[in-house]
């Protein structure tokens, strides 16, 4: 795994935005670096239901999931543009999305292993008693021979 193959986990949070800035500052001038901006989104169920007050609530929740996915996907394009403004070439930055299969942390780990990434950068939402958030902590515990940067 090459440390210059960077997976940037992005969830549209303030710490994810700081992680984007970190990647731009640390890697934009590194020759041969490749960045994949990656997000995991919730499965959006299909439905074919008779109209009832309950199904109206379900439809409302499904529409909220669709809006969230669209917002994060649009955010990925903005992240790519921002990284290019910071010095990356368009060909150095790719976007990848994945429907959540297990958990966000496990899906990030799976992506790292499948893609041969040597560096993972993600935002960290710290929890009481931990310097990292639970996702960053789980990713850190699960990966060996990979640099993991948790940006607070």
TrEMBL record:
Residues 5-144 form the UspA domain. InterPro entries: Rossmann-like_a/b/a_fold, UspA. It comes from the Bacteria. This is UspA domain protein. It comes from Desulfarculus baarsii (strain ATCC 33931 / DSM 2075 / LMG 7858 / VKM B-1802 / 2st14). The lineage of its organism: Bacteria, Pseudomonadati, Thermodesulfobacteriota, Desulfarculia, Desulfarculales.
